[in-house]
Amino acid sequence: MSNRPSLLRDRRFLPMFLTQFFGALNDNVYKQALLLVITFGLIQQQSAAISTLNNLAALLFILPYFIFSATAGQIADKYERAQLVRYLKLIEIGIMLLGTAGFLLGNLWLLLLALFLMGTHSSFFGPIKYAILPEVLKSDELMSGNALFQSGTSIAILVGMILGGAVIASSAGNLLWISITVLSIACLGYFSSRFILKQNIAAPDLKVDWNFFRTSIQTLRYAKSLPLIFTILLGNSWYWFYGATYLTQIPQLTHEHLHGSENVVSLLLTFFSVGIGVGSLLCRKIGGSDVNIKMVPFGAVGLTVFAFYLAASLSAVPEVSGTRLGVMDVFTHGASYYHVMLSVTLLGVSGGFYIVPLYAMMQAYSPRSHRARVVAANNILNAVFMVSSAIFSIIILSILKIDMQVLFCITAILSAIFSLCLLKRLKSLLATTASTLED
User: Residue 302: is its pLDDT beyond 80?
Assistant: First the structure.
C-alpha cells in the first residue's frame, strides 16, 4: 500500500485524521465511562432502572443526528471547514468541562446532558470531515484515505471502550481520573485541528435554514433526487443496521452462550474492530486506488456467509457451569470458542470490504457544492437504520422470544437480499453515469 505511509505523513491528511481519531476516541471513552458509572452505581442519583438509563443514554447520543445533521451539512458547505473544525473542538472541551462537573458532583443529569451535547458535536463534525477528504486528496487517494479513516475510527472505538473501562476500574470510584482523561483527549483534538489546512468554501452564498426538521426533509429530498448518491447512502445505512444488530447482542451473546465475563465482551469487540481495520486496509491493496465497487460484493457475501458461521459456532459451544470464563479461559475450552472468535473477526473484515468503497463513492460522486449536505443525509439515514435495528432486534428477541442465532440468520438473509438489489442498482446507475460522461 504505497500511498498509505505517505498519507499518514502528509499535512493534507494527517491533521484531519488525528482530529477525527481523537473525536471518536473521546466519544467512546465518555460513553463507556458513563455506562459503567450507571451500571455499577458510582453515582447515586438514579431514580430509574439501570437498563432504562442505559437505553436513554444510547438514545440521547444518537438523537442529535436526527435533529441537527441537515443544518450541519448546510453550515459545512457555507463556511470555511478548517475553522469550523477548530470551533467544534473548542466546544468539545467545553462539553467535557460540563461532563467533568457531572462526574465530580455526582450529577447524572449533567452527565446525560453532556452526552447529548457530545452527540450534537459529532453530528456537526461528521459532514465536515467527510466533505474535507475529497477536497484535500486526489481521486486515486480517496480509497486509501477512507480506508485509513475507517481503520482509525475502528481503533478509536475499541481503544476508547477499553480506556474508559480501565480508568473507571482502576480509579476505585474516584471520578477525577476519568474527568482528566476526557479533557486531555479533547485538548489533543483541538491541538491537531490547528494544523488542518485552510479549505475552499463550497457554497458561500447559501442561506442556512435553521428550521431543523424542514432542512432534514429537504436534505433527504435532495439526496433522493440523485439516484446514484441515494443508492450509495442506502448501502451505507444498511451497514449500520447490520452492524448495530450484531454489536448490540455481543454482551448477551457472551453472557448466555459463552458463559463469559465482561472481559470476554471486550475481547469479541476487539476481534470485530480489528477485523474492520484489516478489511478497510485490504480494500486499497486488493481493490486498487481508483474509486470502484470491486470489494463490495466480497463484503456482501462475507456479511451473509460469516453470519451463518457465527450462528452455527454458537450452537456448537458446550454448556459451562460455575465461574464465568475469563479471557484466557476461552482459549482453553475447545475449538467452538475459536470458531466464534474467527467468525466475529471475519464479519469485521467483510464490513471493511463493504463500507470503505461506498464511502469513497459517496464523496467522489457528490456535487462539490452539496457534498457536506449529502454526508448529512447519510448521517440521518444511518440514524434511522440504527434505530430500526434496535426495534427489529427487540421484536425478534423480546416480543417473539426467538433465539439469538435465528436473529443472526434472519439478518444474514435480509443482508443477502438487500445487497443483491443494491449491487444490481449500483451497476446500472454507474453504467448510466459513465455513458453520460462520455457523451
Answer: yes
| Cα–Cα dist 59/27, whole Å | 14
Interhelix angle 227-256/212-224, nearest 10 degrees = 110
End-to-end CA distance of the chain: 34
What is residue 1's predicted lDDT score, i.e. its pLDDT?
Answer: 41
Give 247-298 pLDDT, tens digit per residue: 878 877 887 888 887 678 778 888 988 898 899 888 878 887 788 899 999 9
Residue whose entry in the numeric block shows the C-alpha cell 491533521: 15
Average pLDDT for the chain: 87
Residue 60 CA to residue 54 CA, distance in Å, equals 10
The stretches of 200-334 forming alpha helices (DSSP H) are 212-224, 227-256, 262-287, 296-316
- Scored b (16 or more CB within 10 A) or e, 292-331 reads bbebbebbbbbbbbbbebbbbbbeebeebeeeebeeebbe
| pTM summary value | 0.79
CA distance 420 to 54: 36
Q: Which residues contact 400 (CB under 8 A, 6 or more apart)?
A: none
